[in-house]
Amino acid sequence: MKKGINTLIILSILIITFSCENDETILPVADFTADKTTITLDQLVNFTDLSLNNPTKWTWGFSDNTSGWHQQNPSHKFDKIGVYTISLTVENNDGTDRIEKKNYITVTPEVSILTDTRDNKTYKTVKIGEQWWMAENLNYAAEESYYYNNNEKNAAIFGRLYNWPTANEVCPDGWHLPSYEEYNILLDFAKPNPEKKLIAVSDLWDDMHSEITNSYEFSALPGGQSVQGTSYDYIGFNAMFWTSSITEEFNPICHIMQCYSGSSFHSVAYQGRTTYFSVRCIKD
After folding, report:
1. 200 in Cβ contact with 136 (< 8 Å)
2. pTM (two decimals)
3. What is the pLDDT of residues 132-178, one digit of tens each?
4. Which of 43, 159, 235, 237 could potentially form a cystine with 139 if both were Cys, beta carbons 3.0 to 4.6 Å apart?
5. H or E stretch at 53
6. What pLDDT digit, counting tens, does each position of 87-105 carry?
7. Hey, what's the torsion of the CAs at 188, 282, 237, 222, to 10 degrees?
8. What's the alpha-carbon Rg for the chain, to the nearest Å?
9. Strand 38-40 relative to strand 95-108: parallel, antiparallel, unpaired?
10. Which DSSP category does 2 fall into?
11. Taking a C-beta distance cutoff of 8 angstroms, is the pair 123, 116 a contact?
12. Any alpha helices (H) in the chain, and if so which ranges?
């Protein structure tokens, strides 16, 4: 009888032990990696799930207003320049876990170099949306162009200032003076607050402030203006760019980016043809 009782006790212990082992909770542990963390807009990022304990469901967050990403190892393109936080939530039968990697993916503009074969000067260029822009002001020595204050050092920094007829003819081969509508496409792509992403972070601005990022690398600088090459104004305050467009009254249109009083702005002005502004060229 005693032997039978001992046998029952041993069997009970084994059953309890086996039951406890089967009831053990094994939560997933979320983790992931990416094949690259700094990219340009045209590149695809491939994410790889590294989570432990056999998750069966995955939910990714790319912080760019996309949703519904439930593949284990997704690929993703980002349609805006910026810095992105990535999250992954994983689930198995025992529960869920989530990981977030802040500022994990940096998306930068695609850049290149333009050589003006007329004088062999080189210019940084940048792709913003579907447009290729010069990321520096033109500095070609055309007639009817001036250095600000007749100081050649200013041309090396800000480029030259051109009257409107010259501005329409002065861009290198394969490039042209942008229209009012082409500037608006740029501003629309960079919204909200496009000037904050297009103005250079530089102490050449008299009132640079912390909200300026130049994240699209357009690098607008305050080159000012001239009137007939005799008077000069607004250096340090205004980046003023000719467009090829005119109003119904035949007044040329320019785009202006400004940075002062702790804020930044963009606006449009209608100017006389004897005013001299900066030129940014756009690719044909």
Report:
1. no
2. 0.78
3. 999 999 999 999 899 999 999 999 999 999 999 999 999 999 999 99
4. 159
5. none
6. 999 999 999 999 999 999 9
7. 140
8. 30
9. parallel
10. H
11. yes
12. 2-22, 152-158, 164-167, 180-189, 194-198
